[in-house]
Amino acid sequence: MRLSHIPDRDSRPQSLLSGLGRRILVWFLILSLLPLFLSNSVGYAVSRRIIEEHVRRYLGALAELQADQVANEVERHEAYLEAMVAGSTLLRDYLPEASLAIEEGRNSDPAVGAMRTYLGLRRDGLPSITELYVLDV
Question: Higher pLDDT residue, 3 or 76?
């Protein structure tokens, strides 16, 4: 018994993947994908350059802001220290004596103790400064 509605292999139309159909498909893919690839590559390069320029510009601005903030903070601390020294008769009176005692190795001298106590109290008044040094130049 033979089924009459199933076509023979020879009578079926050729598929697109053989002969002329294959060539047409390859050329269609080349002509459509090549410009797409080129335009995406150019777009990627341009976008990357734009983003890098934005990053450089914004990082430069951020660095300037941080530098200004640090400079302002240092200036504020210097002003505080200058005011602390200028208004202190204790520093003016005990500093030469304490300096001489430290040079001679007399760290238990009362002038050195008074200076340490005074500077410790002043340092605690400004929590962002962790240490104070008296430099005799």
Answer: 76
